[in-house]
Specification:
Binding site for ATP: 30-36
Bound molecules: xanthosine-5'-monophosphate
Strand order of the largest sheet: 3-2-1-4-5
Function: Catalyzes the conversion of xanthine monophosphate (XMP) to GMP in the presence of glutamine and ATP through an adenyl-XMP intermediate.
Catalytic activity: XMP + L-glutamine + ATP + H2O = GMP + L-glutamate + AMP + diphosphate + 2 H(+)
Main location: cytoplasm
Largest sheet: 5 strands, parallel
Structural class: alpha/beta
Order of helices and strands: HEHEHEHHEHHHEHHHEEEHE
Distance between the termini: 44 Å
Helix content: 40-55%
Number of strands: 9
Subunit structure: Homodimer.
């Protein structure tokens, strides 16, 4: 009968067989559950012949890049290269207001940065004495992603372009002749979490909320600027910390703070201020196709509002988005 431990053993054996004693594998990681579990599985199967790459796109959450680096290198022992391309991304986002244009830019830039790095890793891998050159590309595709791409145009594919489920594998596999490895393609999200636990990944990482590839760029309405990135990061950090402190994190499917670029008037001390509006969003969902706003206790929202207006410079209002999906979406863009 099927158990997660047996699935893990079989997958490890299958990967070793496929990759061979000399083969090397490349993969992008984001710090999300899927790519982390897939990477740890590869680490168990072939050790440092798996090369993970994390691209800092400048729109990750507060201290997230450093956190992911610690988790993957120190906690999980994964052979990870971090590329800081944040300046290039933020530069390129200037003047872009349309959500789909922002997604397209981030997706395209990600591919460029990743491919340039892949080239360097290929060279390093060839010289490393760890084996022959890179012949495989790891992708943390889940069963629902497989279904969605089979079903012609899934609703989210037509409504928003999800860059992390398109583009990259196509270019790496057809363009660079790498063979695709998708060890999670028969699993649902909760099974991936279970596999993560079986692999010894710590609970906080296994239970992380999903985070979109375009990051907080789709949580800053309209044009992304460095100031708005700072505001979104600080407000989000306060919101998520308070959610954790209140013990609510695992009851919520996804939560974040967004920045509304229109500004409102307020008073602070005895001064009139003119600042940005923060929109808090927290939803519960089973499949991310429909969702409900989370029903927070009133005093929780008041506490978060107080902290954000007091601690985040440039903000004078905090709102909570109660829209369900549909008609809303989980992200604001
Ligand atoms: P929506 O906003 O469509 O979000 O209700 C559904 C789920 O998809 C995530 N999402 C994205 N993920 N790239 C991603 O990798 C994207 O462009 C993107 N847009 C939305 C969203 O965070 C939620 O989990």
């Amino acid at each position: 009968n099927w158990t997660m431990a047996r699935f893990l053993d079989q997958e490890i054996a299958r990967i070793r067989d496929l990759v061979g004693p000399e083969g090397q594998v490349l993969g992008a990681v984001s710090g999300g559950v899927d790519s982390t579990v897939a990477a740890k599985l590869m680490k168990e199967a072939i050790g440092d012949r798996f090369w993970a790459v994390l691209v800092n796109n400048g729109v990750m959450r507060l201290d997230e890049c450093e956190q992911v680096e610690r988790d993957l290198k120190q906690h999980l022992g994964i052979n990870l290269t971090v590329i800081d391309a944040s300046k290039d991304f933020l530069e390129g986002l200037k003047g872009l207001h349309d959500p789909e244009q922002k997604r397209k830019f981030i997706g395209g830039k990600f591919i460029d940065v990743f491919e340039a790095e892949a080239q360097k890793i290929e060279e390093a891998a060839a010289k490393s004495g760890k084996g022959t050159k890179i012949g495989f590309f790891l992708q943390g595709t889940l069963y629902p992603d497989v279904i969605e791409s089979l079903s012609f145009k899934g609703p989210s594919a037509t409504i928003k372009t999800h860059h992390n489920v398109g583009g990259l594998p196509e270019r790496m596999t057809n363009g660079q002749g790498l063979q695709l490895i998708e060890p999670l393609r028969s699993l649902y999200k909760d099974e991936v979490r279970e596999l993560g636990r079986t692999l010894g990944i710590h609970e906080e990482l296994v239970m992380r909320h999903p985070f979109p590839g375009p990051g907080i760029a789709v949580r800053i309405l309209g044009e992304v600027t460095e100031e708005k990135v700072r505001i979104a990061r600080q407000a989000d950090h306060i919101f998520i910390s308070e959610i954790r402190k209140a013990g609510l994190y695992d009851q919520i499917s996804q939560a974040y703070a967004a920045v509304d670029p229109s500004r409102a008037v307020g008073v602070m001390g005895d001064k009139r201020v003119y600042g940005y509006i923060i929109i808090l969003r927290a939803v519960t969902t089973t499949d991310f196709m429909t969702a409900e706003a989370f029903n927070f206790p009133w005093d929780f929202l008041q506490r978060v509002m107080n902290r954000i207006v007091n601690e985040v410079n440039g903000v004078c209002r905090v709102t909570y988005d109660i829209t369900s999906k549909p008609p809303g979406t989980i992200e604001l863009e």
